[in-house]
Amino acid sequence: IGMLGVLTDKALQMDIAFKHKGDVIFLIGTSRNDINSSEYLVSYHNVRLSPPPFFDSKEEMEVHNVIKMLIGQKLVCSVHDVSNGGLFMTLIESCLPIGFGFDLTSDSDIRLDAFLFGESQSRVVVSVSPEKQSDFIDFMIKTGVGFTALGHVTKGEMRVDDNSFGFVEDIRKVYSGTLQNIMEGNSCN
Question: Bridge partners of 28?
Answer without folding.
Answer: 124, 147
